[in-house]
Amino acid sequence: DTEVTQTPKHLVMGMTNKKSLKCEQHMGHRAMYWYKQKAKKPPELMFVYSYEKLSINESVPSRFSPECPNSSLLNLHLHALQPEDSALYLCASSQGLAGGNNEQFFGPGTRLTVL
Amino acid sequence: GIQVEQSPPDLILQEGANSTLRCNFSDSVNNLQWFHQNPWGQLINLFYIPSGTKQNGRLSATTVATERYSLLYISSSQTTDSGVYFCAVVDGQNFVFGPGTRLSVLP
Asked: CA of A106, closest CA in chain B: separation in Å?
């Protein structure tokens, strides 16, 4: 099974709301990632967890807060977002430590609209 | 960091035609993947190919690591091949995507 699942598929939120995105994998992978993708652009890395520890935070604003409760789950907590944060948010996972010669597998994404 | 370029940026084909997509990268890599992003946003793994040649049905890929490029071949294209094709390489713990090639296959 090479499936990464993400919920919800779509999310519309106001700038004062608090919401969370959820990602799950059952492949035994130990690295999990959040990416942000704007229209007509490639995905950009936001956060990397290796063995449930945050190992990369690519200068992402504090209104995005990641959480890795266990090796299968990854959350992204959203608070006080701006309209320019509207994008497709993708989760991915890979075996072992992040990077190296590990194949990444992506979830279907959450399409976020901030009003 | 590593720079990744892809060409062509856009490609329009008639159904049944063949095509070659190219990915150039600026430094040596030990991890390179090709993805197809469908119109719904799903990134589908095509090949994990840090070096050598692989084939999967109508698709094949070749990476020449010493010359820092990879090629994706699509033969007998179908309308369902439409979408954006990305190559991505690992730079440390970061996964760097190229800008993509947008493919449209016309019936």
From this structure: 6
